[in-house]
Amino acid sequence: MTTQTISTPEVYQGQFGDFTITKSDRTGVIIYRTGLMVAAVSFAIGSGLALFSPQPGAIQAITPLYTCFSLALGVSLLTIHIYMKLLHQILQLFWIIGSISAFIFGHFDNQPLAITIYNQPLTIFGIGFTFAALTGIFFKEGFCFHRLETKILTPLVPLLLLGHLTGILSTQAEQVLLGIWAILFLVFALRKTVQNIPDDIGDKSVFDYLENQRKAKV
């Protein structure tokens, strides 16, 4: 005869009361981190092709890699834990605008997406929203966990995009910044895999408090 031991969920002390972390919470964090890893790997491969193998076939391959990056980022934005619901929704809206822009540029231009973006900097006004959402994740992670790589990426991403948009950066400078971005993005995603899962869930009592406050105003 065998007996099954049912583990009691650990109770955490939050700012507005006790809370427990469910299996669903943990699954959400795993999905969030998986999305970041897929996005980081896709971005690194695409950047590597652009920097070290700028041949027609390689440039063509950047388009599906960008699609993979964007979709994975969208998944992470669905499952990320952010106390401010409005900020969460804004980041998701940015991703939607950027995704629609990339779809238009990728399907209504006879050139590969990477060439279109590089040769027509004004396209950053559309596709740049995706990277604004990514920068929001970097900012959130840097603010919450003080990770060096995210503190560097938070200003680096808009610097590269705005620098290309305005034409103030040389090609060599853009290549260096892109390489640093790709490397640090990978470092960030890899470090997330070994971080304690409850860290990404945060204080659930704050979420409950903010939700109750919102309902009280309705």
TrEMBL record:
Entry keyword ATP-binding: no
Alphabetized InterPro entries for the sequence: DUF2301 (IPR019275)
Name of this chain's protein: DUF2301 domain-containing membrane protein
Taxonomic lineage of the native organism: Bacteria, Bacillati, Cyanobacteriota, Cyanophyceae, Nostocales
Source species of the chain: Anabaena lutea FACHB-196
Alphabetical keyword list: Membrane, Transmembrane, Transmembrane helix
Parts of the chain that traverse the membrane: 30-52, 64-83, 90-108, 120-140, 152-170, 176-194
Keyword Flavoprotein in record: no
